[in-house]
Amino acid sequence: MGSATSQAGTQAGTGKDRRRGAVVAALMLSMALAALDSTIVSTAVPQIVGDLGGFSVFSWLFSGYLLAVTVTLPVYGKLSDTFGRKPVLIGGSILFLVGSVLCAGSWNMGALIAFRVVQGLGGGAIQGTVQTLAADLYPLRERPRIQARLSTVWATSAVAGPALGGLLASYAGWRWIFLINLPIGALALWLVARHLHEPVREKGPRARIDWAGALAVFACGGVLLTALVQGGVAWDWLSAPSIALFGTGVALVGAVVAVERRAAEPIIPGWVWRRPTIAAVNLALGALGLLMVAPTVFVPTYAQAVLGLAPMAAGFVLSVMTLSWPVSAALSQHVYGRIGFRNTAVVGMAAALLVLLAFPLLPYPGAAWQPALVMLLLGAALGLFQLPLIVGVQSTVGWAERGTTTASVLFCRQIGQTIGAALFGAVANTVLAGRLGGAGSLDSVAKALEDPASVADPDRLRRAVAAAVDSVYVGAACAAALALVVLLCLAPRRFPVIDQDGERGGERAVEESGEATPGAAGKSAGSQDAPRHHSPLSQRTD
Fold this sequence. Notes:
about 0% strand
């Protein structure tokens, strides 16, 4: 009898493991849709412009998508906390696939940009909900496993995306870079619909959606991000369009605050910034987004213009960072299990600060392995920084607040990247203009160096580009220092971790066993901020 019971329990456990494995596969496929999107499109731009025209506005293929993803993250986070993760992920994935079909059928550049915005509206749901489900799906001690897998998806996409986009654009036509999303997305949707089972929740008062807040957040984010993305590119920073957009954005910020303070269920609730742990992680991840602009945007230019590498070799210099990042992230649990989330992130960012400061010390022109080594070390440091913060902050809230918390973290990181692109672009062009007597921009100089015979003094231009990129890395080091200050001054030394029953415990439990258990003091401290919700997936897939 005992043997039969044991065998039945084993079979049930195996079935649950299979279901959870299928859900993890669905999350990885869904994340691949969002991760591949920008990299696969970038290499097909010449073919797209050649077919549709619109060279002067093609940058909006990326900016429009980025804007839509960023401003919808808080909205989807709140919706997932209100209605569950499954409907939000399915709805977002369908919207992304509809946008992909529309993009493939575009008849001019304006239509393609509009349909890319539709894709972005779905991409915001995918990015935020997948990260939230990763925390729902695994208990604290096992979360680095799923996070490492998701990091691997981003790393693989960074390496394979440009090559796949180039192949499809050259041999099948650029429209296939959007159509390829359909089989991937269909498989992910089938796996989610079949294997992701959220528990039936008790019926309570009908949830009220803060539509006014969602519209205000969307409008405010769209206006400010447009000002940052296009400022210094489409128009001067002090021109009438920039002043008008920033002025409108500031007014809309006031509108968002006023609307959200009166809303019963605000899209961006005040507790996101009132709780020191969440506020500190938001600011630290915003600084991460800021500093990430240095390697992702400027290293390929440096490798081609200064080192003289071909585009594929220049891409490899950057891609080594995406190889060390997931490895470091997967191993970070052994560090934060001993010293805690905050201290692990501090160690990672301190190492990143040293690596960023080492870049300007590289010899000129140097060998390709030198910046590649810097990128390898930077990826390892940032993997040690980011994952403990995400896992840690998700573990400080219950199920009903996890979507909003995760969305706020991703939102701040996206905002940091947008600010960084504008800020460091201005820094690079200012240094370049000073070196060259007020002539040219970084992009124009880099393109000129592709044909050295057309340049009177190519070495002078290369040195100017090197100085500009060095200045960007110094700025990125300042962003790293800002992240360290935020963590040391604002973040608690030990995150107030909540166990599966919604009660607070200290990180001592994490240090001892890798999973939180409620302490005697933790049961009373902060209980008002921690509604008791069981993890929905722990009941059905764990």
